[in-house]
Structures are given as structure tokens and as C-alpha cells.
Write a structure and sequence with these properties.
Elements lengths: L6 H9 L1 H9 L17 H13 L3 E5 L5 H4 L11 E4 L5 H14 L5 E7 H7 L1 H10 L4 E6 L39 H6 L5 E6 L3 H13 L5 E6 L3 H4 L6 H10 L6 E4 L2 E4 L9 H5 L10 H26 L1
Parallel strand pairs: 1-2, 1-3, 3-4, 4-6, 5-6
Antiparallel strand pairs: 5-7, 7-8
Helix pairs in contact: 3-9, 5-7
Length: about 325
Amino acid sequence: MMTAFDSSELLDIIKNEKIKSIISCFDQDDVLVPGVPLCAGCSVELALRFSLKILGKDVILFTTPGCAASALVTKGLEPTVKARTFGCLLTNVPSVMTGVKRYFDKKGKDVNCVAFVGDGCSADVGFQPLSGAAERNENIIYICYDNEAYMNTGNQRSGTTPKGAWTTTTPPGMVQQGKRSSAKDLPLILAWHRISYVATATVAFLKDFANKLQKAKGVKEGMSYIHLLTPCPVGWRFETDKTLELSRLAVRSNYFPLWEMENGQFRLTYETAHPKSIREFVKLQGRFSHVSEKFLDEFQTSVNNKFAAIKALTRISDL
């Protein structure tokens, strides 16, 4: 709230060049209509609204049943989005996009085909056509908003649900303590398909996200994939005003490193000299309220190892 700053502090913030460049993004037309019916504190709406401000309304959007569908599918007689939109099945998003993109290419028209779909579709149900499109390096933009479970249907575990997390299909009890297996690292899997551009992003780092959207938009030969972490207050069990704080902590604890791969070259786009403990990230989430200290130690080791692996890839790229 503005009352948290005095006038001189607020003026300094507004004058900051980084802040000014982010604010300028909001000068663009809002492609989503007001009042989209998503949950309080949902970062999916902010991510989608911001993405469309950067990509513009002259895109063709592709969506599936999921959280974002309520913001993209027309309700009644009024559209909820001022852009052309395809409603696809969970199993055929990249396939439909490929056909539409190739049709416009044949017509000599340069259009950006953009998917905005969840982790259940991307990592699980629709992974085969996504992998196929990546192997062919189709000229499409694929954005996966990852809330780390099937949130739209009641918080069932997905391939990107982290180990130990509570979901309705991995409840802690006598047999198991949350999800038994580790999360699938989807952005790295896409990177090893050798597509043109891969990146990770969150709404807590909007300038970084905007840069990556602009790079994806600029790719004219090959596929772009952006993996967007979108904390879910309902499924992760946190207060609705903590969405951005958790998004920041995910990055600053190295749980969710921000990086990009451009034409085979890896680069970290954010790094802190003093990472936060994974405990700071976990303690705000009810889905981890059952875990032990031993688990948290193992979780920290896993996070450290993953970040070290990403950083090693950036060093290899620099050689």
C-alpha cells in the first residue's frame, strides 16, 4: 500500500529505471477483460494478463481445461479475452498449434501461436505431443504455468509436484509422508530437445519475465518454451497475500532457479550470493506442514545439487 512509503521514498521508486521499464509494460492494452473468476491470490491471472501485455493481442492463444481456462474461454455472450483463442484437449495442444502455425506460414502470414497451459497437461497428459513438437522444433511459443499439481480438479499430484508435498492423492499418513518421488524437471527436459529457446520465470521478477517473453516472441525459426512457477494458495495452503513472497522465496532459495537457454547456450538470469534457506520457503506452505527435520535437510541438499547442476551448464556454455 502507498501508506507504507513516504513521498520521497515513493518518488525514488518511480524514478528507478528498472521499475520504470516494468511500469511501461502496463501501458499496453489489457487483452483480458476485468473481473476474471480465478481464486483470490492466484498468480495465474497476473501471469496471463502480463504475458498478453508483452505478447500483444495479435496472437493466437491455445488453452485446455485447467485454471487458466476460466480466463480464456468465452462465458455467455461476452468474450473474456480480446484475442483469437483455441480450446484444445489436454492431449493435443502442440499438435493443434503446429497445424495452425503451418497454415498461416503457407498463407505467408507471420503469427505467434501461444499456448498457456498447466503442468498436468505439459508434464503428464500432453507430454508426448509436446516432446514431438520440440523434437521437430516447431515455431510456436509454449508457456507452462506450473502450480505443481492438478489444481483445477482438486489438487491431485502431477509430475511436477515436489517430493514430500501433500496433495489429495498423496496424503501424509502411516504408509507415506506426502509424494514419494521427486519432481520432473520439465524445462531441462525441453532444453535437451535442442529447441531454440527455453526459460524459467515467475511473476515476482517481472522485468526478467518480460525479457524472456520478448525473446520468445522474437524467435522466428524454432520453438520457445517458458516454464512459469505459479504458486497456488489453495493447493499449497498459504495465505492469499503471500503469493509474490513465495514466488520470490522460490527463486532466492534456489528452489526455482531463473535461467534461459538460447540456441544451446545456458545462462543464469538471477543469482544471489546468499541464498535463503529452503526452510523459509517451506514454512509458509501447509502442504509441507507434516515433514520432518530430516526431510528438510534432504530437501536442502536436493535444491543445492539442482542449482549446482544448472550453474555447471552455464559454465560449460561459456567455454
